[in-house]
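input
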Amino acid sequence: MRMPLSSRIIFCVLTIYMAIGAHFFDWQTHLHSPHWPPHAKFHAAHTMAISVVLCLLTCFVANRKTTDKALTLIATVGFASAFWISQFCAILYPGTAFVDPEYDKPSAYILGFHAQPFLDLIAVCLIALAAWIAARRAAVWTTS
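output
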């Protein structure tokens, strides 16, 4: 059986956005920033690479045939949410900021808060929606 198509679409589109977005937003501002030392760039590259790995794992697990719905759903949710949750929690570490000072513009804020945690929250809510769709009693796990 396979997870419901609507859940698979949400999981896969969201994690593809995550992988592309991590590269799009961080490539120029982090890897090519003259203000970032090489080891900081290494960690930025690590973040971008892990977004691709999590995307591939999410898409693989969400689309594979299985007899264990619960494990499939738990693994898919775990892979899909790891990036967003860890990104949201990163602000708790000392000396971190949502954005580098040269990119800190008023347009990056929503209701007085930086847009990044809002994106993280939206992503986690979409993951929860996809999980709910797949976990409902009435969910149809297809055989094809």
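quick obs: Helices lie at 5-31, 38-63, 69-89, 115-135.
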